[in-house]
Design a protein that fits this description.
The protein is α/β, with parallel strands linked by helices. Helix content is about 25%, strand content about 20%. The chain has a six-stranded mixed β-sheet. Strands 8-7-9 form a three-stranded parallel β-sheet, covered by helices on one side. Helix 5 (about 105-115) crosses helix 6. The radius of gyration is 18 Å and the shape is globular. The protein starts with 7 loop residues before the first strand and ends with a strand.
């Protein structure tokens, strides 16, 4: 008796997680790509539970997506931290490797690509960026707010971590957090305002 292709597993972890549409989106992508042996599930995992959850995974796991409140603690769980995650201080992805799990942050590249898709220039200083203006702005909280700040930081954009307790990133010389009353209300034509509203 021959066995079929190996089962590959991936999941989104966070708390709360029941609202996540990630399993639906990934399931549809897997089906469209013919990845019949791949599955993507959601698991309720808090900060205290992340180390044990990751430690208990076997070789069938291809990766983990992380949402709040796990984006910062993932850096402690990982054996290696990619430069993208180290620069932001948060990870949204854990990928297994020969020496353990590596923490990555794909938010910066995702934000840059989203800006490009709607015809806005990515900030200068970000790979592929062309905007030389300092009028790009990012508002947000948590790991995604920091990623938005990193995406805009090369152009002197300001990142307002808005009251969510997340890290603030800024390309300005003072590197400080913009006051809440200075958060942008909208975008000038051709300029980027990237909102992020992680709980």
């Amino acid at each position: 008796m021959t066995s079929g292709p190996p089962v590959r597993r991936a999941a989104v972890l966070g708390s709360p997680i029941a609202h996540s549409l990630s399993p639906v989106l990934h399931g549809a992508a897997y089906a469209a790509l013919g990845l019949d042996t791949w599955s993507y599930t959601a698991h309720e995992v808090d900060e205290a539970g992340l180390p044990a959850f990751v430690e208990g995974l076997d070789g069938s796991w291809a990766g983990l997506s992380l949402t709040m409140p796990l984006k910062r603690v993932a850096l402690e769980v990982a054996a290696d931290v990619a430069p993208s995650a180290a620069a932001i201080g948060a990870a949204n992805t854990l990928v297994p490797g020969p020496h353990g799990w590596t923490a990555h942050n794909t938010d910066v590249q995702g934000i840059v690509e989203a800006l490009r898709a709607v015809g806005l220039a990515a900030p200068a200083g970000v790979r592929g960026g062309t905007s030389g203006s300092n009028s790009d702005a990012v508002t947000g909280a948590g790991g995604r707010g920091g990623a938005g700040g990193a995406a805009g930081g090369g152009a002197g954009a300001r990142a307002d971590a808005g009251g969510g307790g997340g890290a603030s990133r800024s390309g300005s010389e003072d590197g400080g957090r913009a006051p809440d009353d200075e958060a942008p209300r909208g975008a000038e034509p051709g300029r980027a305002v990237v909102p992020s509203a992680e709980p």
